[in-house]
Amino acid sequence: MFPTKSIPLLLLSFFLLLSTSFGDDPLNDICFGKDNYTSGSPYKANLDSLLSALVSKVPPSGFATGSSGKWRNQAYGLALCRGDVSSSDCKSCVSDARPELLQRCPRQKGAIIWYDNCLLKYSDVSFFGKIDNSNKFNMVNVEDVDMDFMEFYMKIKELLNSLTGKAVAGPKKYAYGELELGEEKTLYGLVQCTRDLSGNDCKTCLGGAISDLRGCCYGRRGGRTIGGSCNVRYELYPFANV
C-alpha cells in the first residue's frame, strides 16, 4: 500500500504523461481559503465581477491582476498564460478555468487552478507581489533517463539556471530554451514567474522550484515544479512554441 502522501504524486506522474494528448485538462487545483462564502453574498458578487474582468484583461498580454469590492468582501485575482501561448489560446484557457475552478472550489474564498497553458488564482487576501510557497506541487515523467543520473541533474540545473537569468531580465518573466547533451539528445527547459513579482523575488522563486526537482524527479526523463508564483519544467522533447 502506498503512503497517503505518495498518491497525489503518482497520479500527477500519469497526468504528465497524458498531458501532451489532453492539454485542456487541468493539471491540478487547490482550494486554500480559510473562510467560505455563500451564493448571493457580497463576496460572491465581487468574485464573479473579478473573474469576468480577468477573462477580458488577460489575453492581450498574457497576464493580469485585479480586485473587486471593498474591505472584508474584496476579492483579489490573478491570471497568467504561458509565455508562448497565443492570445486566442490564452483566452480559451482562462475562460475554461473560471467555471472549472468555481465548480471544484464552490465555497472557498481562496482557490487556484493550473492548466498547461494558464493558471487562475483568487483570494480574499491580497497576494500581489508576494511569493506563494504554499500552493505548489510536482509532476514527474515516470521513465528513467538513460544516462548518469547526477550528470543529467547537473545539466538540468545548468539549463534552468541559465533560463532564470533570461526570464528575470525579460518583460514576460518567461524563458524557454534547450541544451545539447550529445549522442543526439537535447534537453528542453522552461521557467516562468507571475509578473507581479520583482526581479529578485522571481529569481528566488525559480531557484526554489529548481531545487524541488531533485526531490521529486531525480533521474527521470522529465519533471516540473508548478506553483502559484512560478513554475519550471524540463523534458527530453520540445514542448513549447518558439
Automatic annotation (TrEMBL):
The keyword Signal applies. One of its GO terms (cellular component) is extracellular region. Residues 25-127, 133-239 form the Gnk2-homologous domain. Residues 1-23 form the signal peptide. Belongs to the cysteine-rich repeat secretory protein family. PANTHER family: CYSTEINE-RICH REPEAT SECRETORY PROTEIN 38, CYSTEINE-RICH REPEAT SECRETORY PROTEIN 38-RELATED. This is Cysteine-rich repeat secretory protein 38-like. It comes from Rhodamnia argentea. The gene is LOC115752367.
